[in-house]
TrEMBL record:
GO cellular component: plasma membrane
Keyword set, alphabetical order: Membrane, Transmembrane, Transmembrane helix
Name of the protein in question: NfeD family protein
Residues spanning the membrane: 6-23, 28-46, 52-73
Protein's organism: Thiovibrio frasassiensis
Superkingdom in the source lineage: Bacteria
InterPro entries the record matches: Membrane_assoc_protease, NA-bd_OB-fold
Keyword Membrane: yes
Length: 155
């Protein structure tokens, strides 16, 4: 375990960054950057012990994640909270959960927050599979006052 080379960290970082394409959370990306930082540190100082490598990886990953959520995400939400329902129409997202029966509720995730949230409950008039790309065609309000997005599958 002591034989971890600098390029091992760089490869781990690249893999984690590329996983962000498949798992849209924007958290794995920061751990990938933490691995790259650790790899660069190990390339510059090859005698750093595994304990310090893990400490640098943990601290840098958590630091990147903290700054992301502390400084960038609140600005995105504030910016989009001011938008009205009409601004949501036409936005594209990915079905995080399926809704195979028309009228059934599912969950859709957006890469950029829509109406202040990154995911919303949706319903559609057609079967939606997990991973389908969908477009918002209306914003509905339930009996409880909760907003639900009506979506259509994008082919």
């Amino acid at each position: 375990m002591e034989n971890i080379l600098w390029w091992h960290w760089i490869v781990l970082g690249i893999i984690l960054i590329l996983m962000e394409i498949v798992v849209p959370s924007f958290t794995i990306f920061w751990f990938g950057l933490g691995a790259v930082v650790t790899g660069l540190l190990l390339a510059a100082l090859p005698d750093v012990s595994l304990k310090w490598q893990l400490l640098v990886f943990s601290a840098s990953s958590l630091g990147f994640t903290f700054f992301w959520f502390r400084f960038f995400v609140p600005r995105k939400k504030t910016k989009t909270l001011l938008a009205d329902d009409q601004a949501a129409i036409g936005q594209m997202g990915i079905a995080a959960t399926r809704a195979l029966v028309p009228g059934e509720h599912g969950r859709v995730a957006f890469s950029v927050p829509v109406l202040g949230e990154e995911s919303w409950m949706y319903l559609a008039d057609e079967p939606i599979e997990t991973g389908n790309r969908v477009r918002v065609i209306a914003v509905l309000v339930s009996d409880q006052g909760e907003r639900i997005l009506k979506v259509k599958k994008v082919l």
